[in-house]
Fold this sequence. Notes:
This protein has 145 residues and is mainly beta. It has 3 helices and 8 strands. The chain folds into 2 domains: 83 residues, Alpha-Beta Plaits (2-Layer Sandwich), CATH 3.30.70; 35 residues, no CATH class. The chain is 12% helix and 32% strand. The strands form 2 sheets. A 5-stranded antiparallel β-sheet has the order 2-3-1-4-5, covered by helices on one side. Strands 6-7-8 form a 3-stranded antiparallel β-sheet, with no helix packed on it. It is elongated and about 50 Å long. It starts with 9 loop residues before the first strand and ends in a 12-residue tail after the last strand. The mean pLDDT is 85.
Amino acid sequence: MLNIDEIQNGIVIDHIKAGTAIGLMDLLGIKGNRTASVALIQNARSHKAESGRKDIIKVEGDASWLNLDVLAYLDPDISVTVIENGKAVKKEKPQPPKRLVNIVRCKNPRCISSIEEECDQIFELSSNGKYRCIYCEQELQVKPE
C-alpha cells in the first residue's frame, strides 16, 4: 500500500474522477504554483467510485488563493476537506458556481467572446441548471473531461 504523509494545514480535494486530476490542477492554477507543497495521488482505490479508482490532490499550506467554486462544475462528486493542525475541520461538496469566468470557451463562432481576444469567457448558471454564455446565450453542452 502506498503511504502519503498527512498534511498539517491545507486542503484535500478528494473523489476526483480517476485520470483527471492533472487537468484539474491546471484549471485551478496548482500546477504552476511554486509556493504550495502539493501531493497528487492518481488511481487510488475507492469503494465509492464506479470505476473503483479515484484521484486525490493534497495542498499543504495556505490554499485561499484557489478558486474552488469551479470544482462542482468540473466534477459533482468532488469533496473538499479543510485540514488545520492535522485534523479535518470541515468537509464539503462544492456547489455549482453562479458564474464560470475563463474556465470554458464559447463554441459559437459568432460570439463576441470568440472574436475579441481580450474578452472574458463568462457563463452564468440559468434556472434550468445549465450554463449559458452571457454574450450570445449559447448553452454549454458537455462538461470537460
